[in-house]
Amino acid sequence: MNQNSINTFVRAKHQQKLSKVITLLSIVIILFYIGTLFLSFHIDNIEVLVMGFFVFSILANSDIPKYSFLVNKNELLNIIEEEINSDAEAIELLSKELNK
């Protein structure tokens, strides 16, 4: 495993943590928004803020490769494939699994 692969893996782990935080924050925001609707409490431009945050959360949790801070699944699959190809025992195990 080379340094580039390790850096990509570490970025992916950080991205996984960030994704969980963004998802939880999305749930809290939507519950707050629903609460303000039920209580007839109006905050100016809250709809724009909520929709903007949800667009951000969709982009942050997606695999769109043009965002440099994201690690897409293809990069991780390439790392795994390189590791499997460099290990003869892993190649044997993979071929057994694929032939099932």
Written overview of the protein:
With 100 residues, the protein is an all-alpha fold. The chain has one domain (3-98). Helix content is 75%, strand content 0%. It has four helices and no strands. The chain has helices at residues 3-38, 46-60, 73-85, 88-98. The longest helix has 36 residues, at 3-38.
Counting DSSP E segments of at least 2 residues, the number of strands comes to 0
Radius of gyration: 20 Å
Number of domains: 1
**Terminal-residue CA separation:** 29 Å
> Order of SSEs, N→C?
HHHH
Mean pLDDT: 76
Q: Which word captures the global form?
A: elongated
* SS content category: mainly alpha
Low-confidence segments, ≥5 residues, pLDDT <50?
none
Helix fraction, binned, reads over 70%
Largest sheet: none
Percent strand: under 5%
Number of helices: 4
Tell me briefly what this model is.
The chain has 100 residues and is an all-alpha fold. It has helices spanning 3-38, 46-60, 73-85, 88-98. The protein has one domain (3-98).
Task: Record the SSE blueprint.
Elements: H1 3-38, H2 46-60, H3 73-85, H4 88-98
Helix pairs in contact: 1-2
List keywords for this structure.
single chain, 0% strand, 100 residues, 4 helices
